[in-house]
Amino acid sequence: MPEGHSIHRLARQLTDVFAGQRLEVSSPQGRFAAGAALLDGQVFEEAFAHGKHLFAAFSSDLYLNVHLGIYGAFTFGGDEHFSGASFIGAPRKIGEREDHGLLAFSAQPPEPRLTTRLRLVSEHGWADLVGPTICRTLTEPEVAQVRSKLGPDPLNRDADPAAFYRAAARTSRPIGVLLMDQAAISGVGNIFRAESLYRCQLDPFKPAKDCSSQQLEALWEDNKQLLELGVKLGRIVTTDPADRPGIPDEQAWPEHANYVYQKQGLPCGRCGASIALEEVAGRKLYWCPGCQL
Ligand SMILES: [Zn+2]
Q1: Would strands 44-50 and 116-121 be described as parallel, antiparallel, or unpaired?
Q2: 268 CA distance to ligand 1 middle (Å)
């Protein structure tokens, strides 16, 4: 599943491609036909993200709300005015990278697929959405209601980390489970979860309410920093430059990108213990039993 940084990149790209333009909005597949009809012919104002939810405001005061889930993805294309990633969404290769392949320099979108839920077309570019968990229109109060149930997103400037600290203080669930709970903190997925806990030397199984305020603040700050780098790079790179001398951020992926994610059985770079892999709450958790105490 794409982590929060991908959704923020998606929001930026949608805004770059479509802001201020009147769009043709359709649902070639038909499953979003009624919603598309409400947005068709309206001006796209701007898109923003909260965790793994994407919102896009239209001039009719309606919002498009998309959650990509595990399988959802956008493809983009356009004429010579278009620049950006051609693909953002469900990873097609290990490592949750985006596809920066050849851009489709065509003002006209391709024939829709049977699964194309949503198609946005402007004068200069187009975007197709397939496979989302959520694709719907919302009013402004409904957007506020959805957002009120989400934990703070470290990538949002107005995010209040205190809400995350309060959620932690209330639960004896392991901190490694809480980090994946979108109602406690938004946008952190499996890779950022494992990597931030390793970087903060925290036992993933420690009950959240037993974590000190310093530990929770360190986790928030670390996830914020890692997510911000993810937005910049379009890839998840969690290693400090000091741990990969001579290799810049842009070249760290995949070999030097992470400390514990998919490193099970390999020696920990910090203590030499064997990196462990366990299934926790249905997701694979990577961690070092030697130094995450
Ligand atoms: Zn270790």
Answers
A1: unpaired
A2: 5
Q: Which CATH architecture has domain 161-287?
A: Orthogonal Bundle (1.10)
Q: What is the side-by-side order of every strand in the sheet holding 53-58?
A: 44-50, 53-58, 63-67, 134-138
Structure tokens at 135: 């694709």
Is 283 part of the annotated catalytic residue set? Answer: yes
Q: What is the pLDDT of residues 116-145, one digit of tens each?
A: 999 999 998 999 999 999 999 999 999 999
**Closest among 275, 272, 280 to 264, alpha carbons compared:** 275
213 or 94, greater pLDDT: 213
**Residue 106: predicted pLDDT:** 65
Q: pTM for the full model?
A: 0.93
User: pLDDT digit string (tens) for 153-195?
Assistant: 999 999 999 999 999 999 999 999 999 999 999 999 999 999 9
Per the DSSP assignment, residues forming a β-bridge with 127 are: 76, 120
Ligand 1 centroid from CA 39, angstroms: 52
Q: Delimit the domains of the chain by residue range.
A: 4-148, 161-287
Q: How confident is the model at residue 91 (pLDDT cuts 50, 70, 90)?
A: low
2 is catalytic: yes
Residue 247, SS3 per DSSP: coil
- Which one is catalytic: 9, 52, 97, 117? 52
Would you tell me which CATH number, out of the four given (3.40.50.720, 3.40.50.300, 3.20.190.10, 1.10.10.200), belongs to the domain 4-148? 3.20.190.10
Q: In sequence order, which residues have a C-beta less than 8 Å from that of residue 52 and are 6 or more positions away?
A: 1, 2, 3, 4, 7, 67, 68, 182, 186, 187, 189
204 is catalytic: no
How many C-beta atoms lie closer than 10 Å to residue 87's C-beta? 18
What percentage of the chain reaches a pLDDT higher than 70? 94
Q: Which two tokens stand for residue 203?
A: 């036992």
- In the set 2, 28, 132, 152, the catalytic residue is 2
